[in-house]
Design a protein that fits this description.
The chain has 183 residues and is an all-beta fold. Helices cover 0% and strands 48% of the residues.
Amino acid sequence: TDNDFALARYDADGTLDITFGSGGKTTTNFGPGGDMGLALVVLDSGKILVSGTAYNGTDHDFALARYDADGTLDATFGSGGKTTTDFGYGDDGSYALAVLEGGKVLASGYASNPIDNDFALVRYNSDGTLDTSFGSGGKTTTDFGFGDDRVQAMAVLDSGKILVSGYAFNGTDFDFALARYDS
């Protein structure tokens, strides 16, 4: 009746790897509506981290799920392998994901403000809880000033600074947009 995070793992010949999930596939439901995984990172441990958006019954939130290498949810992350973050005004979602030294997780995308969407970043501790030493309570947003702004890609630089790219509305149409943040 709705969308869920979905993962499939394939063998080198393109057939489903039946040792992963159920017959090579796994899905994760976050709640009462549509959920969508939009970014994926495979950790050195073999665990799989996915970020995206999940419906909370009213609007969408940042959503992360961490899986063991066999496709089962990692119960040591968040609540039963899942965590969500609401910015408070409307739809939020993550399009980019990075794992930092020490296991902290950085997710970026967009967050609604009362009028439109802004660049948004969230940093989590390795267990899926918000890293409150980052931004304001673990979250930060950037408004380019004219309308919808969204992060589409992210890189963590050797200096620890965070570079994000995406688009920002200039009042007439959309421009390529970059922002750089301190760690």
